[in-house]
Amino acid sequence: MTSQMPPPSDPQLWRRSVAGDAEAFGELYARHDRAVRSYCLWRTGDPTVAEDLTSLVFLEAWRCRARTVISTETARPLLLGIARNVVHGQWRSRRRHRAAVDRLGRATADRPTHDDDSVERLAAAERLAHVRQRLDGLPPHEREALVLVALSDLTYAEAAAALGVAVGTVRSRLSRARARLRDAPELAALAADPEGPTARPTTTEASA
Q1: Measured between alpha carbons, how far is 71 from 73 in angstroms, rounded to an integer?
Q2: Are 181 and 187 in contact (CB under 8 A)?
Q3: For an engineered disulfide with 161, which of 58, 62, 77, 97 has Cβ 3.0 to 4.6 Å away?
């Protein structure tokens, strides 16, 4: 009986991608497309925009692959780090676009529809908007850490790699974010610590 070879790891696929192997990069896309799309959706609240940004994330990952090294067992922290930058760039572009539209006085609202699918999508969008409103009330550094760990399922170490900070900094930011959200029952799942109780942050971490 022939034993099956284990699937290649993300670092192996990345090295093959660096050498120009598009199929290897396609496998990375298949593994992490959902996580990147989910992150972009939580950050923008718009499924169509999230879809477009996900494509931009993988395009940027392919473009910069030759000068980028994966330092973790999975490519997800790297890809979500790229997604973070892409989302920030998109916000700047949308602000410029809105300013131009306002100057021209053009209306931007779409005519609503009332079929069942549209109502369901609207309800889901409203729930997402409510959660995002609470998240938007957090300081940016705390919000980033919470989205990566609680919503994108990164470990503390992976979130630290995505953000380019120390693991202790991620812990302290999460601790503060969760303390701010304890009065919101609908966000109780986000307030739970997936890695157990954290140590009391040091003076340096508390100021991060």
Answers
A1: 7
A2: yes
A3: 77
* pTM over cut 0.90: no
Say if residues 191 and 178 touch (Cβ distance below 8 Å).
yes
Other CB atoms within 10 Å distance of the CB of residue 161: 23
Q: H/E/C letters for each residue in 31-52?
A: HHHHHHHHHHHHHHCCHHHHHH
- 82-102 residue pLDDT tens: 999 999 887 555 554 444 444
CA distance 109 to 103: 16
Interhelix angle 22-44/76-104, rounded to 10 degrees, is 50
CA 173, CA 193: separation in Å to the nearest integer?
A: 12
Better-predicted residue by pLDDT, 98 or 187: 187
| Fold type of domain 8-103 | Rna Polymerase Sigma Factor; Chain: A (1.10.1740)
Q: Quick one: fold of 117-208?
A: Arc Repressor Mutant, subunit A (1.10.10)
Q: Mark 93-109 as b/e (b = at least 16 C-beta within 10 Å).
A: eeeeeeeeeeeeeeeee
**Contact call for residues 169 and 205 (beta carbons, < 8 A):** yes
What are the domain boundaries of the chain? 8-103, 117-208
pLDDT at 180 exceeding the cut of 90: no
Tokens of 133: 């409103």
Radius of gyration of the chain (CA): 19
pLDDT > 90? residue 75: yes
